[in-house]
Amino acid sequence: MTVSWTPEWLTADRAPFTLKAGPHEWRGVRPTDWAAVGAGLRIAHEDLRRLPVRRIVEAVDAVVDLWAKRDFTARRTTVRSAALVTGMSEETIDRALDAELGHLRADSLLAALTRELGDPEVLDGFRGGTTAVGPRTVLAVFSGNVPGLPARSLVRSLLVKASVIAKVPAKEPHFTAAFLRTLHDVEPVLADAVVATYWERDDEAVLEAALDQADAVIAYGGDQACAAIRARVRPRQLYEEHGHKLSFGIVSAEYVTRYGVAEVARRIAADCSDFDQHACLSPQVYLVQEEHARAVAEHLAGAMRREAQDSPPGTIDAQDATVLQHRRLVAEWRAATSDASEVWSPDGLEWTVVLDDALMPLSGAGNRVARIVSVPDVAAAVDAMRPFAEHLQNVGLGAVGEQFRRTARELAELGASRVCAPGAMTKASMVWRHDGQPRIAGLVRWCDVELHPELDRP
User: Fold this and answer.
1) What SUPFAM superfamilies does the database record attribute to this sequence (predicted)?
2) Is residue 39 part of a domain?
3) What is the domain range of residue 143?
4) Which three-class secondary structure string do you get for the chain?
5) Are residues 149 and 274 in the same domain?
6) Is residue 271 located within the same domain as residue 226?
7) Model-level pTM?
8) pLDDT tens, residue by residue, 306-343
């Protein structure tokens, strides 16, 4: 299965590439004449501009309706291939796609457009004396191994009628091209406005050539990778960045009293198991008020076991397995020397629950390690997160009443861009202003008609 997408109009020379994952290989093609790509996307953009925004929404909704069916051929092929690359189980990937694509239905897209633009149809022309115009071409550089991740930025770009050059992520390259092939079946004008391909991170020549064609740039990746792209962005280009992020959970005593220890543990287990805990939205730590911390951790061990049965964890490569085993050893050493610490885990590496009374330096990359840290109160939990404020993204806040409202505001001031209920940490909607910025409105420029007599004429 090819992991690239090039419209039929792109007849210029293309170079083959191969992506490998263990014994498995996937192939695609990469344009070599980027000036021809830019010229073709300019023409495709003109066709895209003529589509009403509601037709774009309807087309995306129709594609998602097909992909929502787990037996849809393109989805099954993509899930099987993604499992080979990411190591995730097919059930975990299916759940990830359910979560990602579920927020791309028509009602969600229209709600996001309305929240950010006021009236979605300002993208079609002047409404009440104002109109919004998207970029001609967006360069989107994707990274990571979260299945379906590129869909959000790809759809946002198409909603503002921008053509797209997409660099698919090496760690999960299959989804983008497969999604675009379905989009072409539903509405060719949309898919023909996208070129999706791959190049190595250190291939600066291709990056520069792609940048030359873009009016806006969206970058995903670690801090170093994003910094390398940011340094090359031109002054005239809009720039959007999704770098390294951390997420936490907080649970108050009142929240446990209201919902019960078992239910709270179930919600935390869901947060720590979705995406095998590899998403930025996944919690690194849950800070739980001390009178309930041990009970929550004890119940959490059973909840993590049930999650592993319902949605089996993926294969962990040798390096990650070594890191995870080291994390367990450190936790077990602390448990042997402190009555406040304990570790629950099976013989294998399917899941781990750690109880501690100190927020140790964060290490490792997910793989279903649920860390419960006991804190005196919610205020202490917020204070414990302050050293990580620069990278703070998402907080699952288990609090009620005035304490919830006060703490949510404190978290916003600390740097969080999303606060949700425990159990919903990985299920961010399209209405969320991703990483704290309006991602649809951020792609458009506005034009207002004012002080003109024609404005008031029928």
Assistant:
1) ALDH-like
2) yes
3) 14-244+435-448
4) CCCCECCCCCCCCEEEEEEEECCEEEEEEEECCHHHHHHHHHHHHHHHHCCCHHHHHHHHHHHHHHHCCCCCHHHHHHHHHHHHHHCCCHHHHHHHHHHHHHCCCHHHHHHHHHHHHCCHHHHCCCECCEEEECCCEEEEECCCCCCCCHHHHHHHHHHCCCEEEEECCCCCCHHHHHHHHHHHHHCHHHHCCEEEECCCCCCHHHHHHHHCCCCEEEEECCHHHHHHHHCCCCCCCEEEEECCCEEEEEECHHHHHHHCHHHHHHHHHHHHHHHHHCCCCCEEEEEEEHHHHHHHHHHHHHHHHHHHHHCCCCCCCHHHHHHHHHHHHHHHHHHHHCCCCEEECCCCCCCEEEEECCCCCCCCCCCCEEEEEEECCHHHHHHHHHHHHHHEEEEEEECCHHHHHHHHHHHHHHCCCEEECCCCCCCCCCCCCHHHCCCCHHHCEEEECCCCHHHHCC
5) no
6) no
7) 0.95
8) 999 999 999 998 888 999 999 899 999 999 999 999 99
122 and 99 assigned to the same domain: yes
Residue 2 is assigned to a structural domain of this protein: no
Q: Say if residue 27 is in the same domain as residue 86.
A: yes
| 454, part of any domain | no
Which CATH number fits the domain that encloses residue 34?
3.40.605.10
Is residue 9 in a domain?
A: no
pLDDT in tens, 85-96: 999 999 999 999
What is the count of structural domains for the chain?
A: 2
Q: What does the pLDDT look like over 102-126, one tens digit per residue?
A: 999 999 999 999 999 999 999 999 9
